[in-house]
Each structure stands twice: as C-alpha cells, then as structure tokens.
Design brief:
Shape: globular
Structural class: mainly alpha
Number of strands: 0
Largest sheet: none
Length: 258
Amino acid sequence: MQKHENYRELIWALAKTDFKLRYHGSVLGYLWAILKPLLMFSILNFVFSSLFNARGNGIPYYSLQLLVGIILFNFFSEGTMAGMSSLLSKSQLVTKIYVPRWTIIIASTINSALVFLMNILVIIFFFALNKFLPSFQAVALFVMFLIFTYVIIVGFSLLTAPLYVKFRDLSMIWEVLLSILFYASPIVYSLQMMPEKIQKIMLLNPMAFIIHFSKEGLINNHFADPWKTFIFIITILAFFGLGIFSYNKLAPRIAEEI
C-alpha cells in the first residue's frame, strides 16, 4: 500500500514539474494551453463556416461541433506525442536514478490531461455562450469517451515509448500519421457527408468514433448503438493490454538503449 502511495506521489510530482516547465519563460504562460486550440478553431471555423458554408449545409451548431472535435483530437495528439517521447526526454532520470519507467510515461500523459482539463473550460464557455445545454446522458457519455481517450493515450505511450528510445524516426512517422488522422476523423466535417460504406470504415478508427459520437451526443442527443459501443470498449481495452504486454517485454532494455 505504501509502495503504491509512493508511486502516486512520484507520478504527480513529475506531472506537475512537466506542466510548469512547459510554459516556463513564455509571456502568456498557461494561457497558451487555451490559446493554441482556440487559434486553430478560429481559423478552421472561418474557413469551413464562412467560405464553405458549413452552417448552410445542414450542420447544426457547427462551431460547437468543430470546437469539441479539435479539443478532443488535440488531447489525443499531444498526449500520444508526449507519451512516446517521455523516456527519451527524461533520459537522465532513466539512466542515473532508478524509478519505475512506467511512472515517467504515465506522468507525461497526465501532463497532457491537465492541459486538456483547461480546454474543457473553453468548451463549457462556448456552450454557455450559445445558450446550449446538452442532456445529462450526453454529458455522461462524453465523460466516458474522455476516459477512453486517455486509456488510448496511455496504451499507445506504453507501446511506443520503449520503441522510440531505439527508433527515433517514430516521432516523424507519427506526426505524419496524426495529420492524416485529423482529416480522416469527422472534425471539420460531418460524418453523414460521407457515403455509408466510408462511414463504417472511418468508425473503425477509435478517435473518429469518439469524436463523432461526442459531437452527436452533445449537440444532437444521438448516441451509438449499444453493441457498437461495446465493441469499441473491447477494442480499446485490448489495445491497452497490448501496450502493457509490449512495455513489459521491452522495459528491461530501455536504460541500455538510451
């Protein structure tokens, strides 16, 4: 019990340190955590809402849907990048002091989660500004999707952080894949705009599933079929298990390869 308590304190200490260092020296400090997705939202909202007339194409509360999609994807993007590079960025800690390697990985994902929690306030503000109140069921399912997004991030980080120590090209490859995933997820457009066969393929991507049904639930009070949600949950848990299995196999050689 004491051991687990020590691990929690270590993870929280590392996460807080990373969070403080992230914005240390910048003029706007922690405001960047909110400004970054807001700037991206403003540009995309202008392009797709004004120039491409997304509102006129039957997408209700397009700005709210876009904001939810961007903030969810940013959480996934920043969390996976931070988790992947966590061991290498803390190489001195890994090689000179013994700490369980997984605590470093988890701490980096918690750091991204802290930034995301600040962005949740932005979502709440814009919903209030539009005088739009989602149903209780929609909010509950949205919270569930947030939890599973974090599970995906942790599973991915456990899988890739040990690999990244040896294969440094992984970060460049993942950056390219993130760009593809951004446009392969229904963020700037509605999933219903795609042919039905394409929709089914797109929803195989867990982040597309999360983003689509988060938007549908919060805005349209429309939810996924229970069996689809069940398959989604099983898939995420299986991926998380793969991350743990891979980490346990690779962890003993991390210090040598750094």
